[in-house]
Amino acid sequence: MTLHNLDTPGDALRDAVNLADIEALGRAALDRNALEYYASGANDEHTLRENRAAFTRARLRPRILVDVSAVDTRTSALGLPLSSPIGIAPSAFHGLAHPDAERATARAAHARDSVMTLSTFSNTPIETVGADAQGRFWFQLYLLRDRAHSRAMLDRARAAGARALVFTVDAPYLGRREVNERHRFALPTHLGAPNVASRDALAQVETDSGSQLANYFRDLADKTFTWHDLAWLREQTPLPIILKGILTAEDAVLAAEHGCHVWVSNHGGRQLDTAISSFEALPEIVDAVAGRSEIYLDGGVTRGTDVLKAVALGARAVFLGRAALWGLAAAGQHGVERTLTLLEDEFRLAMALCGAAQIEDLTPALVRL
Ligand SMILES: Cc1cc2nc3c(=O)[nH]c(=O)nc-3n(C[C@H](O)[C@H](O)[C@H](O)COP(=O)(O)O)c2cc1C
Ligand SMILES: CC(C)CC(=O)C(=O)O
């Protein structure tokens, strides 16, 4: 079993032995506005902490005396081959982390045979990111009240090579991230949201109180969309649709019945505080979907054993939110690559120590909840 040895610039990044080391580097590179936006959760941040805690509480039941001389972490998501079941979740405004912004993240996803989910609120236009990702990207949609504009974004994403539509369903309103309210989070003037509006239009909605993002989002996002409207969305794009932000068996069944895939998520604890952790929500969702759709998960994934536990319980892949942002802030493309590589190496070792030589060997019997 060989572990990758990435030749990355910067002693500090090279010396990072885990994602916590990269997080420390990333945090140190950010100003207060960006750091608080990335790190914050809603209200008391119970769910933010619980996402990590739930992984830690689950214990492994490793099997022994299995030939693990070759461990294969490869899998696929919606037919896209992946070097491991680890992708990048959508997050807004990568330009707060690094001047190369989403281009760096896309290049890293491509270089590591992963997949990047591009946020509606990227600082870089869809087409530019699509060229860098070379087919290794999904597009995340926030449905705007302006449906024609939403539709145009879907067309652009498809033309740019997006392979799936990730439709975020847990944010009709933005959760209240109190730290961003206190310090009036705002997008610096050199950054825009080119898929959504011109910088001038963004500036016009800036006010003198609270999180500028929350103020802006309030008027922009469609809050009327229901299950009935999915038929409309289906007509707007031929791409497979993944509903991101599902936490219950009930909604997972509806998603499968509507022909959608399921992304288990509480938005990294940024929306409804005290919502269940993604990892704890996973088993009932896997049961309810019963193989009809692919199931993904995000929220608190920072260790190879987290990846292993989620996949063993039925997730097709897991996605990194903040962890990718810390890597981006630490060293741009190389930082994101190093993050993916370290986690994949941890996952491979965890598989070996659990007696699993390939993804199919990861079964629920390995996990005691
Ligand atoms: C700074 C930040 C921005 C985010 N922006 C988006 C977004 O634009 N669209 C979206 O669907 N989710 C967004 N999310 C949620 C992530 O996709 C993901 O659900 C969450 O970060 C996973 O938790 P983790 O950070 O613990 O990995 C964002 C999360 C963070 C931390
Ligand atoms: C632009 C925002 C709506 C992005 C987001 O989802 C978040 O900050 O959690």
Question: How do the helices and strands line up, and which of them pair or pack?
Answer:
Elements: H1 11-15, H2 19-29, H3 32-39, H4 46-57, E1 59-60, E2 75-77, E3 80-82, E4 86-88, H5 101-111, E5 116-118, H6 126-133, E6 137-141, H7 147-159, E7 165-168, H8 178-182, H9 199-204, H10 212-220, H11 230-236, E8 241-246, H12 249-257, E9 261-264, H13 278-289, E10 295-298, H14 304-312, E11 317-320, H15 322-353, E12 367-368
The protein binds flavin mononucleotide and 2-OXO-4-methylpentanoic acid.
Flavin mononucleotide binds next to helix 3 and helix 15.
Task: Give structural notes.
The chain is of the alpha/beta class and 369 residues long. It has one domain: TIM Barrel. The chain is built from 15 helices and 12 strands. The strands form 3 sheets. It has an 8-stranded parallel β-sheet. It has a two-stranded antiparallel sheet with strand order 1-12. The protein starts with 10 loop residues before the first helix and ends with a strand. The structure holds flavin mononucleotide and 2-OXO-4-methylpentanoic acid. Residues 11-369 form the FMN hydroxy acid dehydrogenase domain. Belongs to the FMN-dependent alpha-hydroxy acid dehydrogenase family. InterPro entries: Aldolase_TIM, Alpha-hydoxy_acid_DH_FMN, FMN-dep_DH, FMN_HAD, FMN_hydac_DH_AS.
